[in-house]
Design a protein that fits this description.
Layout lengths: L2 H8 L4 E5 L15 H10 L4 E5 L8 H10 L4 E4 L5 H10 L3 E5 L5 H13 L3 E6 L2 H5 L8 E5 L13 H6 L1 H6 L4 E5 L5 H10 L3 E4 L1 H5 L3 H13 L1
Parallel strand pairs: 1-2, 1-8, 2-3, 3-4, 4-5, 5-6, 6-7, 7-8
This protein binds indole-3-glycerol phosphate.
Length: 229
């Protein structure tokens, strides 16, 4: 267990809440809020962990990760298309405790080497898969968080995403040996989020719909109610 998986395992609301400046179409998601205000809102909502998108597609940067790390003690996931050992070390130095490894962009050998290196650095590999073949390539799954990406990065995540397609991959995700199967991206409503947990995911990663919510506390109340149904 690491700080990241510990926090997920004990969370009252197992939602990795994401700091993302804009969506893939360039639409501003901050609505004028500062990063500090967004992070405070996530802390108040009981986020066990925070994801920070550093990728340029989404208006991110390494500075954003450093800024969030200075604002909170919550375990941080760096979300970006990381491809080298140096980037993993840099992520750790900037304050991340988990790193995204995207099966679609990494040949199986690289995925395995980066998984090993992340674990050697004390980082939790957060491995994202989009189909059964990618799930089969996960290395040391028992020590990874394995997430199904409900959106298609081949289209730069511009399309709506298909949460049901992702949910159908849960058996493949569990076959990796992970104790933390996660559904990531395109989760729109509290009812949908509750349904994915009921389906068997242990946590969810959410950005856009939490950032778009007129009131995060109200969103969380609706989520709690949907889980209790
Ligand atoms: O905003 P959404 O639809 O809840 O999705 C969050 C997250 O999964 C998304 O930001 C993401 C998916 N894959 C990525 C790769 C890099 C950076 C970010 C991402």
């Amino acid at each position: 267990m690491t700080a990241f998986t510990d926090a997920l395992a004990t969370a009252r609301r197992p939602l990795v809440m994401e700091v993302k400046r804009q969506d893939a179409d360039g639409r501003d998601l901050t609505r004028g809020r500062s990063v500090a205000e967004i992070v405070r809102g996530y802390e108040e909502a009981g986020a066990p962990c925070v994801s920070v998108v550093t990728g340029r597609w989404f208006g991110g940067s390494e500075d954003l990760l450093a800024e969030v790390a200075a604002l909170t003690r919550l375990p941080l996931l760096r979300k970006d298309f990381l491809t080298s050992r140096r980037q993993l070390e840099r992520s750790r130095d900037l304050g991340a405790c988990a790193v995204l490894l995207t099966a679609k962009v990494l040949p199986a050998g690289s995925l395995a080497r980066l998984t090993d290196h992340a674990l050697d650095c004390g980082l939790t590999p957060f491995v994202e898969v989009a189909d059964a073949a990618e799930a089969a390539a996960v290395h040391r799954g028992a020590q990874c968080v394995v997430a199904v990406n409900n959106k298609d990065i081949a289209t730069r995540e511009r399309l709506a995403g298909d949460v049901d397609r992702g949910a159908a991959l849960l058996p493949d995700v569990l076959r990796t040996g992970t104790r933390f199967p996660v559904s990531a991206s395109a989760i729109d409503t509290p009812a949908r989020a509750a349904g994915l947990l009921r389906h068997g995911f242990s946590a969810l990663l959410m950005g856009t719909s939490l950032l778009d919510a007129p009131s995060l506390p109200a969103w969380c109340t609706a989520f709690d109610a949907a889980r209790a149904e």
